[in-house]
Amino acid sequence: MKLLITTQAVDLDDQVLGFFHAWIAKLAAEIDEVHVVCLKEGRHNLPANVSVHSLGKERGKGRLAYVMKFYRLAWQLRDSYDAVFIHMNPEYAVLGGFLWRALGKRIVLWRNHKMYSLIMRLGVMCAHVVCFTSPDAYVARYGKSVQMPVGIDTNVFKPDVPQRGTVLFLGRFDAVKKPDIFLEAIARLEREGVPLRVDVYGDASLGRERYAADLKEKYRGLKSVSFHAGISHEATSAIYGTHDIYVNLTPSGSFDKTIGEAMATGCVVVCANRAVREAIPAEHLVSSEKAESAALGIKSALALTDAERRGVVERERSYVEREHSLSLLVRRLVSICTPH
Prior knowledge:
Layout: E1 2-10, H1 20-28, E2 33-41, E3 50-54, H2 63-76, E4 83-87, H3 90-102, E5 106-110, H4 118-126, E6 129-132, E7 145-147, E8 163-170, H5 179-192, E9 197-201, H6 209-218, E10 225-228, H7 233-241, E11 243-248, H8 257-265, E12 268-271, H9 291-302, H10 306-323, H11 326-337
Parallel strand pairs: 1-2, 1-4, 2-3, 4-5, 5-6, 6-7, 8-9, 8-11, 9-10, 11-12
Helix pairs in contact: 2-3, 3-4, 5-9, 8-10
C-alpha cells in the first residue's frame, strides 16, 4: 500500500507534534511508500520510503499559497498513494475530499476533540473512516468512527528510577490544560506542610503568553515549584523518568498522549480524564475544575508506600502496553487505511 499523510508539522523539535515523527517512521516500516504533506517542515530523520512535502509555513508562505500547493501535490502525487490519512485537521478532508473520492482514494480522518465545529462535521462527511481515542470525543457518536490506541512507543517511554516526592506538570501552558487549578492545588499542599518538589514544563501557545505570564507571577511565591521552558518531545521520556507523580488536568473529551507516556515511563498518574479510569486508582481520578480535588489526588499519590507504588505503576504500564502501544496503533491504522 502507498499512503498520503497530511499533518500540521513534521519536526522532531516541535513540543506538541514531535511525537508524530515516530508514527510516520513506524507506518513507513509497514507499507511501501509514504508521502507526507505538512504545513511546516523542521528537523526529521525518516526512512528512505518517506517523502516530506511542506506547504511552506516555515518560509512565511500565506494561506492562499498553502491551498494552491496542497491541490498541486494532491494531483501530482495521485499515482503515488492509495489512501489518505488526515491527522488532526479536518480542513484537509474538506479541501481534498471531493478530489480524493473522485480518484477512488480511501480517506481516514483522525479527530479527537470534544467540541463540535462545522469544519469538523464537513470533514467527517468527506471521510470513509474517522479515528478517535477518547470515548468523550465528539466524533465518537458517528457510525463510521473507530476508537483507536493513543500510540505510545513503549520502547522509548520505559521506567527509570524516579525521585520520590517529585511532581511533574508537562504540556502547553494554556488554560485548557488547567495550570491554574494545578498551581492552586500545590499552594494548598504547601499550606498543609506536605513535603514535595514540583517541576512545571511548558510554553504558552502563540497569542496566549499573557495568560501564562500572569499565572506564573501569581504563584511565583510557591517554594516547591520550579518553572521550566517547554522541551522537545525527544527529551520528555527522561523528564518523566525522574519524577514520582505526573499530573494532567485536561478535561475528558480528548485523550492527552502525555498521560500514556507518563504511565509507560513509570510515573504515578493523577488526572482528570475518565478514559483511563480503569487503569488508575479511584483516588487519582480528580476534577479538572476543583483545586481541592487535585490536591487530594496528589496527596494520595505521595502517600503510597514503595510496594503500593510498584503495584500502581505496573498496572499503568501494562494498560498502555495492552491498549495503547504504538505498535498496536500502527497495525490497526494500516488495516483501516488499506483499500477494501
